């Protein structure tokens, strides 16, 4: 069989290893298309990135069979633009924009469900107080952001004013580029007028968090897994993703039904997706946090450890017109997690375990992978990795285990072995 050439926007070594574990990988050639650094760091110049990608694709002498990506904006918007140009399978750009523009997404959700908080569109250059329709505590965030960048939970007018000042300084990094995407689609007047540098204010949600993963194919929505999201106690910062979900079956069914209705409404097709929820199982309540028009590469190892195949399989199969079905519970472990080791103050990294020590740890503990994201000498606030508004990522720790107690033991051993030490500084 002839090898399929699959171009991957922002292909990185970690995900290349995972892609090589999907079924029929021997029939695929995964080719890098731009790198993660130029796609996600600094000022995002999406028009230049699209043109650069097109030059590389035009110069390729073989057949282009698929263009895929698993990163957030601008990759999530570039993928449908490039697929359309080269006549490949991919989601409609307008449906992607409906998911990515946080206010437009809320308008679409409102048409088919009540599973959303009270919300309002906000001008970042307007009054330093929230709309009167909202009550504290609220979240204020740009209509286009990712990894909780420039997202702030505020409890009073003073905190709101400080958050808006921070947002005004940085909202253009993604927002101006997203304006370029909005020019290519038929957005509602209020969305088009607001553009990509407006903000969404919404009342804070409560409960436990979970993410529904699925895909759409030929207009039909398929949910293939639900992942729990656990925060550090007393914070809004992710501690770990854990699969499979421990939510009651009735709650999982409710999340699935909401996801199906919303995705049918939005019209995302030939695409993976993941929808983040807050839910209160005791009351049967659920609220959508956000919709991502891509699958989560962060979850790939968990699906492989529990179900036997990484979720990248769905992305690749959809792009090639193949069956994206995932197996169920055929992996080596009963439970798996991706853990985000964080530090909650700025500072300089003075020590962490060596690469040799980390490799030794991997050999000694089956089902464990440790990926540091900062190194000795780095100031956390200047590290080339995304972080939320309240913490700094140090490492990603992937763990597969026979039960949750064993998973916690493995994680604790990894944290101790990493042995991070800092010269702390107070955040400004």
Description:
The mean pLDDT is 93. It contains 14 helices and 17 strands. The strands form four sheets. It has an eight-stranded antiparallel β-sheet with strand order 12-11-8-9-10-13-16-15, sandwiched between helices. A four-stranded antiparallel β-sheet has the order 4-7-5-6, with helices on both faces. The protein has a three-stranded parallel β-sheet with strand order 2-1-3, with helices on both faces. The radius of gyration is 21 Å and the shape is globular. It has 428 residues and is of the alpha+beta class. Helix content is 34%, strand content 26%. The chain folds into three domains: 4-91; 118-203, Dna Ligase, domain 1 (2-Layer Sandwich); 208-424, 2-Layer Sandwich (D-amino Acid Aminotransferase, Chain A, domain 1), CATH 3.30.470.20. The protein starts with a strand and ends with a strand.
Output the keywords.
3 domains; Dna Ligase, domain 1; 428 residues; 14 helices; D-amino Acid Aminotransferase, Chain A, domain 1; four-stranded antiparallel beta sheet; alpha+beta; eight-stranded antiparallel beta sheet
Task: Give a concise summary.
This protein is α+β, with helices and mostly antiparallel strands and 428 residues long. 34% of the residues lie in helices and 26% in strands.
């Amino acid at each position: 069989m002839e090898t399929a050439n699959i171009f991957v926007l922002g292909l990185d070594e970690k995900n290349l290893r995972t892609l090589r574990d999907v079924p029929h990988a021997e029939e695929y050639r995964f080719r890098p298309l731009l790198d993660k650094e130029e796609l996600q760091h600094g000022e995002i110049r999406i028009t230049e990135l699209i043109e650069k990608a097109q030059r590389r694709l035009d110069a390729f002498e073989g057949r282009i069979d698929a263009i895929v990506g698993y990163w957030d904006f601008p990759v999530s918007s570039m993928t449908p633009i490039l697929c359309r140009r080269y006549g490949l399978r991919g989601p409609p750009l307008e449906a992607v924009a409906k998911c990515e523009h946080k206010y437009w997404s809320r308008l679409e959700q409102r048409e088919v469900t009540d599973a959303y908080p009270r919300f309002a569109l906000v001008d970042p250059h307007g009054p330093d107080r929230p709309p009167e329709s909202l009550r504290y505590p609220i979240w204020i965030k740009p209509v286009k952001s990712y990894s909780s960048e420039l997202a702030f939970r505020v409890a009073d007018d003073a905190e709101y004013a400080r958050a808006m000042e921070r947002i005004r300084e940085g909202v253009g990094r993604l927002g101006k580029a997203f304006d370029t995407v909005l020019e290519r689609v038929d957005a509602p007047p209020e969305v088009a007028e607001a553009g990509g540098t407006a903000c969404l204010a919404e009342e804070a949600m409560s409960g436990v968090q979970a993410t529904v993963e699925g895909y759409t194919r030929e207009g039909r929505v398929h949910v293939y897994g639900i992942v729990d999201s656990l925060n550090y106690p007393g914070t809004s910062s992710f501690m770990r993703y854990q699969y499979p979900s421990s939510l009651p079956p009735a709650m999982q069914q409710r999340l699935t039904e909401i996801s199906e209705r919303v995705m049918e409404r939005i019209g995302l097709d030939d695409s993976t997706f993941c929808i983040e929820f807050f839910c209160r199982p005791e009351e049967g309540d659920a609220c959508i946090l956000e919709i991502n028009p891509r699958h989560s590469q962060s979850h790939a190892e968990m699906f492989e450890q529990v179900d036997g195949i990484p979720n990248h399989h769905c992305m690749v199969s959809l792009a090639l017109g193949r069956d994206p079905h995932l197996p169920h519970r055929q992996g080596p472990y009963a439970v798996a997690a991706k853990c985000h080791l964080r530090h909650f103050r700025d500072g300089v990294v003075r020590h962490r375990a060596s690469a040799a020590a980390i490799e030794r740890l991997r050999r000694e503990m089956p089902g464990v992978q440790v990926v540091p994201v900062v190194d000795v000498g780095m100031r956390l606030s200047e590290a080339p990795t995304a972080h939320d508004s309240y913490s700094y990522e140090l490492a990603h720790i992937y763990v597969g285990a026979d039960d949750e107690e064993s998973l916690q033991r493995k994680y604790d051993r990894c944290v101790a072995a990493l042995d991070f030490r800092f010269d702390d500084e107070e955040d400004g």
